[in-house]
Amino acid sequence: xxQLVESGGGLVQAGGSLRLSCAASGSIFSINAMGWxxxxxxxxxxxxxSITSDGSTNYSDSVKGRxxxxxxxxxxxxxxxxxxxxxxxxxxxxxxARIVQFMNIRANDYWGQGTLVTVSS
Length: 121
What we know:
The protein is an all-beta fold. The chain contains no helices and eleven strands. The strands form two sheets. Strands 2, 4, 5, 6, 9, 10 and 11 form a seven-stranded mixed sheet that branches. It has a four-stranded antiparallel sheet with strand order 1-3-8-7, with no helix packed on it. It is elongated, with a radius of gyration of 14 Å. The protein starts with a strand and ends with a strand.
């Protein structure tokens, strides 16, 4: 019953910026963590950024210093601000969330449908 809705993907020139948004909805009791991963053709899916309920963040080395993840807990929403974009950042970006639902102690992982980010040189 949980759904993640993403927005903000598109085409941008190298050196530009994009801001991705992801809102979780459904039978949500709490969200332990949210994050963003990406996958380019012929490559493995890579977790690029995550944030926990207390605000602790983690970034992959490839995006550290350029991307910023943030969370609006009251809206069950996570953002990814992407600055100084490079052509190698081109990929499908996926939102994910670790969610505890009502009547369930165990947390489960949910994923969005993905949104394409294309960076031109």
